[in-house]
Amino acid sequence: MTTIEKTADDAVREGAGDDGTPLLEVRDLHVEFHTRDGVAKAVNGVNYSVRAGETLAVLGESGSGKSVTAQAIMGILDMPPGRIPQGQILFRGEDMLTMAGEERRKIRGRKIAMIFQDALSALNPVLSVGYQLGEMFRVHEGLSKKDAKAKAIELMDRVRIPAAKERVSDYPHQFSGGMRQRIMIAMAMALEPDLIIADEPTTALDVTVQAQVMDLLAELQREYHMGLILITHDLGVVADVADKIAVMYAGRIVETAPVHELYKRPAHPYTRGLLDSIPRLDRKGQELYAIKGLPPNLLKTPSGCAFNPRCPKAEDICRTDVPALVQVTEQDGTELPGRGSACHFWKETIHG
Amino acid sequence: MPEPLTDTTLAPGTQASVTEVTAAKDPSKGSGPGKPRSLWGDAWFELRHRPLFWVSAVLLVLLLAIAAFPGLFTDAHPRDGDLTNHFLTKPQLSHFFQADWFGYDGQGRSIYARVIYGTRASILVGVGVTAAVTIFGGLLGMLAGYFGGWIDSIISRIVDIFFGLPFLLGSMVILNAFAERKVYVVIAALAFLGWTTIARVMRSSVITAKQADYVTAARALGAGTNRILFRHVLPNALAPTIVVATIALGAYISAEATLSYLGLGLADPTISWGIDISDAKDAIRDNPHVMLFPAGMLSLTVFAFITLGDAVRDALDPKLR
What we know:
Chain A: Its main location: membrane. The complex is a heterodimer. By secondary structure, chain A is an alpha/beta fold. Chain A folds into 2 domains: about 1-110 and about 195-350, Rossmann fold, CATH 3.40.50.300; about 120-190. In chain A, about 35% of the residues lie in helices and about 20% in strands. Chain A is built from 14 helices and 13 strands. In chain A, strand 5 (about 90) and strand 6 (about 95) form a beta hairpin. In chain A, helix 5 (about 130-140) packs across helix 6. Chain B has one domain (about 40-75, about 100-320): MetI-like fold. Classes of the chains: A alpha/beta, B mainly alpha. At the A-B interface, helix 3, helix 5, helix 6 and helix 8 of A face helix 1, helix 8 and helix 9 of B.
């Protein structure tokens, strides 16, 4: 059995044109939270990597560990109660978990930046947006107040905020939701980081604005050749933007695939369930499929495959053995690059 | 290398939206404030429309002026006693701003002059204690709230211990140990026992503020501890502290008067309302005016500060708008 670490490396090597090492590599990351009721294992051995110019979508429902992984990468996890018992987070080959605090702080914002879900609460209500945008330059590059403000206006122009010059000293609550998210994006983009982590950047927005914001993000990413980790539970958002997808469930990656292949042929029953739950026009009038049951309690994840209580295909082996993330192949045995599934019955799922 | 967007790609969209926005903005300029409004801007707007704020503000400006330049308000000297004026000279209420306006006290000193010259001590004590308490208590509360853990445990236990000491009794004990009780001694004694309330208020509002997403966001974008603390947490946690401090200011002034009355606060060559009230206590039945005027000034001052505190609280609380 080949584990996915190998396939991930293969994928990297195949992605010629770049210098080989991925921008960010998460290796066997575990995160747990110590609570009064016990230890909640939020992330149980996640592996993924992103190269420059590439978009990785991390997909999963609430509590699947997708945001916690991102917080661990950014180093904004509350510790305690959070703890990282094992794993590595390599940024350009250097493990950020073993870095000194100050060294890590310098990476944040300058090399890796983050876009938050709710832009209203992620912007400081008592400071003008111009000040907050300018703060990036003043802290990291030591610009003067005046220069920082000019840069802030430039940034606001770049994310297409109309009348940037007049609005630079407005406060966050004076902007609409879409504009606020643009400001968040501008802030993340300010120092032209190598990698941006967007944690559900469009969840708080309405559908038309979602599309605009995603387009802007994709455009800026192409322009600056950045890596992008897009955390979302919206399959629709992912399809247009992502290069590859990692589906998470109960703190594990259950399936990885290049974006279109995942939609065409899912190799994990959970992914299939997610895809079947999307409302479709051609199934009008029929009952909408839903994955039965609830996401597992992280304090006591089910034994074996965490998905087994909800899985239509579950058999005895699923309740005892944890499936490893294995290389997915065609029926004739040729490897499908970048594809992996953590299911005992992936063959039946993809080919059956 | 990434290149910034060229102007041409942006121009059409931006231009169109610019006109849109300015067009939308214009009509609003006539009716409401067109300038961006912050929390403090809103609070100021709110304050300006409250009569009570103006009453207290005018009073306070007047009191501050008296405290700073008492000589402008009276020609009489507060320590010149002329026993021919002993008590018998009742207030001459028509003699505005004259030495005998409020009458004379037991030692023949002008009560008006003493009330004017006594303002400085009261205001100094009030402002001094409040400043000391806000800086010291606020800082400790902020550290406890932001860092939590053992720092919080230690600071909070110290706060608890000091909170257990009775304010007035404690300051009496402390002041009793000083032979010469100047204004700064009284300030130190009151501040020593009074900082706990501010520390608690600050701690709780910092705990609320530090959990906000924008603090996480600032951290994620590489802000250091100092910047997060002073630029992002503090401004958002300051409002309750300011309210408590303004209201407490009045309480410190009356505490000083209480202590002076008991003979444990400021002592004679210093002129203070508390001392005058204390001196007047034996003559109150026949000559109530000796007590009335310093007590009235004291009440007025405390009223002015507490009213200001109330007005500020209302202005900062969006729920009351």
